[in-house]
Amino acid sequence: MTENVTKKFLYVNRKAPYGTIYALESLEVVLIGAAFEQDVSMAFIDDGVYQLKKDQSTDGIGMKNFSPTYNALGDYDVHKIYVDKESLDERGLTADDLMNLVYEDEDDDYAEKSSISIVTREELAQLMEQQDVVLSF
Amino acid sequence: MTLHTVNKSPFDRNSLESCLRFARQGHSVLLFEDGVYAAVKGTRFEGLVTEALKNNKIYVLLPDLEARGMRSDNIIDGLKTVDYAGFVDLAAESDRVQAWL
User: Fold this and answer.
1) CA dist., res. A51 & res. A2, Å (int)
2) B69 to chain A: which residues are within 8 Å by CB?
3) Chain B residue closest to A50 (CA)?
4) What's the CA gap between A88 and A46, in Å, rounded?
5) Which tens digits make up the pLDDT trace of A44-73?
6) Which of A13, A58, A64, A137 to mutate to test the interface with B (most CBs of B within 10 A)?
7) What's the rounded Cα separation, in Å, for the pair B7 and A30?
8) How confident is the model at residue B86 (pLDDT cuts 50, 70, 90)?
9) Number of Cβ within a 10 Å radius of residue B95
10) Predicted confidence (pLDDT) per residue in A71-86, tens digit
11) Is residue A1 part of a domain?
12) Smaller CB count within 10 Å for chain B: N or C?
């Protein structure tokens, strides 16, 4: 029996990259989960916003720089990426400090669009409330 | 002289705040791993770090800063960057190394 039930999944990312394994694990789970064609959103709050910082260069620390992998999310139809504005603000960061993550909108002649939305805590709280499943990293 | 090391993000843990509360005049502080986020200009912790610079030398490990996409020209004035060899030198010339995990 096949059931084609689409659920709303939200991945909540609150950890900085490299210092712990959470960020990399989350990214891997999202990419694996993308194969199940669910309605996926990602939220980046607190130190999680550091995951999306552009210009990461890990040559000096002997670890894999996994930040380019975020660019693949758009190809897996994961293009709802929400970044908490207050978390950016208290870290002295703006949207310009983040990687330029894009996807091709198949409903709009495959126009390239930004996957990232900078949102308030209120908007994020609403988003969380709309989910069927929330996975925390 | 004591070298204090901080490897946690100041937003995630209070390691840096505790460290600076206990570090005495003339001690040095080294920020590394996720601790380097405290070195960046414009964060909520800039005031705390700037205040500490009056009493302490504060160093930041450059490879950890670069890994996280931060630039050495965007760190708080008065902080010094060091590489791994510099980290070793600091440890060697200190009487003790105290880690704030």
Assistant:
1) 36
2) 50, 53-57, 67, 97
3) B68
4) 8
5) 999 999 999 999 999 999 999 999 999 999
6) A58
7) 28
8) very high
9) 8
10) 999 999 999 999 999 9
11) no
12) C
